[in-house]
Design brief:
With 276 residues, the protein is of the alpha/beta class. It has 10 helices and 10 strands. It folds into 2 domains: 65 residues, no CATH class; 190 residues, Rossmann fold, CATH 3.40.50.150. Helix 10 links the parallel strand 7 and strand 8. It is globular and about 55 Å long.
Length: 276
């Protein structure tokens, strides 16, 4: 039975350099503790006896490479996670966005799409979905396919519905999906305003201008240098008076962009000010 801390730090360096040089995926500035934990889990679950075996598989098996990337980048998510965050979006941010003729929102690191569908529901209830575009991006192509289908396990719906109500939702949550045996499919109307595509926060550049950028529980997996790079990417992508929303354990405090933002409430939402 393989034990904990299977892979050594110097072996992680070799592995990540291999992946970058051969395939162009750059994980070298991800949080070392997170990377190590996830690689150890891969080695255990896929029954690799040594670092050499894992390295060989990554060099010569593109299917395993895709599996490896999926395991390294997967982030657990759910609809209306942290309901008070969505309540603040509903009550304080969306009324401001509603004054725009076209609203562009970027959900970065959208994973399997639950957060993007949550945003679409908020926009619909604010009567501004028709003039909105939600750009939902992730590095992981497998989870993007789930997001594109909008099909989720029925067993999750009870907690999704409870969080929706806590966020201030007044409708019957079942109006937004159709149940079929053990699965639910969210209404096509919600997806019509979504653009789902691959985007790598580590290496890709800004691709549009937005009034709201949401990136929650992604940056905790990055080291400080990479976090700073991503903050500047978001800053370059966000219009003046736009909003930046992060996860509960993430902050722009002590970053190079903090001077140009002001906190809105206590739910990790900041408003971008005009430059001085």
């Amino acid at each position: 039975m393989l034990g904990h801390n299977i892979i050594k730090d110097d072996e992680i360096d070799i592995l990540l350099e291999d992946i970058y040089q051969r395939y162009g995926y750059d994980f070298m500035q991800y949080s070392r503790a997170s990377i190590k934990r996830r690689i150890n889990r891969i080695m255990t679950n896929d029954r690799f006896a040594s670092f050499a075996e894992l390295r060989f598989a990554l060099k010569d098996n593109t299917e395993f490479l895709q599996h490896f990337i999926e395991e390294i980048t997967v982030n657990l998510t759910e609809m209306f996670r942290d309901p008070l965050f969505f309540k603040q979006l509903r009550e304080e941010v969306l009324p401001q966005l509603g004054t725009y003729p076209l609203i562009r929102i970027w959900v970065a690191g959208c994973s399997s799409g639950e957060e993007a569908y949550s945003i679409a529901i908020l926009l619909k209830e604010a009567h501004i979905l028709h003039k909105s575009l939600i750009y939902a991006t992730d590095i992981n192509p497998r989870v993007l396919e789930i997001a594109k289908k909008g099909i989720y396990p029925l067993r999750h719906i009870k907690s999704f519905s409870e969080s929706y109500i806590e966020s201030g939702g007044k409708e019957d949550f079942s109006n937004y999906y159709t149940a079929n045996y053990d699965w639910v499919k969210f209404n096509a109307e919600l997806k019509q305003k979504m653009i789902l595509s691959a985007h790598n926060l580590v290496s890709d550049t800004s691709f549009n201008s937005f009034q709201l950028i949401i990136c929650r529980n992604v940056l905790i997996y990055f080291n400080k240098e990479l976090q700073e790079r991503v903050f500047h990417l978001f800053d370059a992508s966000l219009e003046n008076l736009g909003y930046l929303a992060l996860g509960s354990k993430e902050t722009i405090r002590f970053s190079g962009i903090q001077h140009n933002y002001t906190a809105i409430g206590d739910q990790k939402i900041w408003k971008k000010l005009y430059p001085l």
